[in-house]
Amino acid sequence: MSDADLVERSKYDMSFKYFLGLRPEDDVIHSSTLTKFRKLRLADENILDLLIEKTVAIAIEKGIIKEKRIIVDATHTKARYNQKSAYQALGDHAKLLRKTVYRYVSPEEKNAIPKKRENGILEDQLDYCKELIAHIEKDEGTASIHAVQEKPISSRK
């Protein structure tokens, strides 16, 4: 939920107001306050993890959480901790593109596709991606397949 959505829902959802310790007629903060708080007060990246950990511990202690498994939206954690290098990102995009092309070409055409390189050198990975794209663009039939055209774009995260 975005900061703006959270604040908007807090205006009308009594369960949110109750959780925040507000009376039904109380005003809620402006959504920019949450952003400002996060930037100024949560400068230490580990503090957010500590807050989540402590919140879960309190919920378990109070009997609010009874399950042994907990699902947490880790969107921001993943973005912060699982960043891929440029080499890895290029390799992932090339792999998705190759897999898509493989679905539409003959075994002989698969063998003609440039082989991937896994030496960890960014320049080599970039050269490989250029070769792969050039190879696909040479074959108008493959290059005109919608799924092939869209794969590099739809795989962006």
Structural descriptors:
3 domains, elongated, mainly alpha, about 160 residues, 10 helices, about 0% strand, single chain
Termini gap: 18 Å
Low-confidence runs: 153-157
Averaged pLDDT, please?
A: 80
Order of helices and strands: HHHHHHHHHH
Q: Helicity, in percent?
A: 55-70%
Strand-helix topology:
Elements: H1 3-12, H2 14-20, H3 31-41, H4 45-61, H5 75-81, H6 86-102, H7 107-112, H8 122-138, H9 140-143, H10 146-154
Helix pairs in contact: 1-2, 1-3, 6-8, 6-10
Q: How would you describe what is shown here?
A:
The chain folds into three domains: 1-41, no CATH class; 45-83, no CATH class; 86-154. Helices cover 67% and strands 0% of the residues. The chain is mostly helical and 157 residues long. It has ten helices and no strands.
Briefly characterize the structure.
The chain is 67% helix and 0% strand. The protein has 157 residues and is an all-alpha fold.
